Amino acid sequence: MTTTDDGTAPQEVPHIQRIEVNQLQCLRIQTARAELLVAEQGAQVLRYQVHGQEPVIWMSEEAAFEAGNSVRGGIPVCWPWFGDLMRNPPQVQALHSGGRLPAHGLVRGIDWLLQESAIEGDSVRLVLAIPPTTDSPSLRHLPAGLELRLEILLDDRLHLNLTTRNNSEQHIALTQALHSYFAVSSIHNVAVEGLEGQRYIETLEGWAERQQKRELVISNETDRIYLDLPPQLAIRDENWKRRIRIEASGSTSAVVWNPWASKARRLSQFADDAWQRMLCIETANVMEDLIELAPGEAHSMGVAMWAEQLGG
Ligand SMILES: O=P(O)(O)OC[C@H]1O[C@@H](O)[C@H](O)[C@@H](O)[C@@H]1O
């Protein structure tokens, strides 16, 4: 039998393993090509890295992996509202009055339930769902019967698909995001492709509407909501000679965020210089791209991400 350097039997790939990272129960997936780590809390992707390459997804060196707190980095799920509830469309605000109203909604810090895990050839599929709203203290103000699940598929790419099903008896409105923290060689050496000519809301200057003239380069604190987007965006990274492709479905809005130096000092689980190594491009349904569902209706928002060599 072949053994690895530490004398243990090599594990077949793909495989799915349960591990604990500090206080969090996680699923670690290895395929011949890549590694993926997903926390049951928040159904949060914590790591996505193709073997031998720089990580696609950034994780904070100061991440705490604590129960009840969203981890800084990875891909938090924001639902059923994005950002500050008071900045959301009135239909979304109307649904929430009681209980805590934290930024980015209610599901980042709660345990999701693993509903499916399957190895299909060289790929691995997981499905996680929030608990029934009536069972969860944090969700009990939501209409009974509102369901949310995240399907995660790892093949040559990472695919996430977030589905809301309104099995309640009332009309609902929500905003949401897959809050992806991408890893970059240096924020000073990347450009975001695909935003040229698009409308955006500059949240740092009174939520004024602007138009993106050229390709976006980040040169100061950035917190913008882009609207009417085509499905394909990309981060071109000259130092790492790669382009991260980001392909959205069921979404025409995206949030682009980098805190830059001064806000970085005020963020939790975030090193003072970490802003140079990350860039959030968050596939979203926000502002006028909100989701409205009559009883019985469902909506899926997805993102696929992968890295290509520059020039390829
Ligand atoms: O610290 P949090 O709640 O994870 O939010 C981080 C950032 O998330 C981004 O999506 C927002 O646009 C920013 O305004 C916010 O600062």
Automatic annotation (TrEMBL):
Keyword Transport set for record: no
EC number(s) stated in the UniProt entry for this protein: 5.1.3.15
Top enzyme class: isomerase
Coiled-coil segments: none
Superkingdom of origin: Bacteria
Reaction catalysed by this enzyme: alpha-D-glucose 6-phosphate = beta-D-glucose 6-phosphate
GO molecular function: isomerase activity
InterPro entries: Aldose_1/G6P_1-epimerase, G6P_1-epimerase, Gal_mutarotase_sf_dom, GH-type_carb-bd
Keywords in alphabetical order: Isomerase
Family: Belongs to the glucose-6-phosphate 1-epimerase family.
Protein name listed in UniProt: Putative glucose-6-phosphate 1-epimerase
Organism: Herbaspirillum chlorophenolicum
Organism lineage: Bacteria, Pseudomonadati, Pseudomonadota, Betaproteobacteria, Burkholderiales
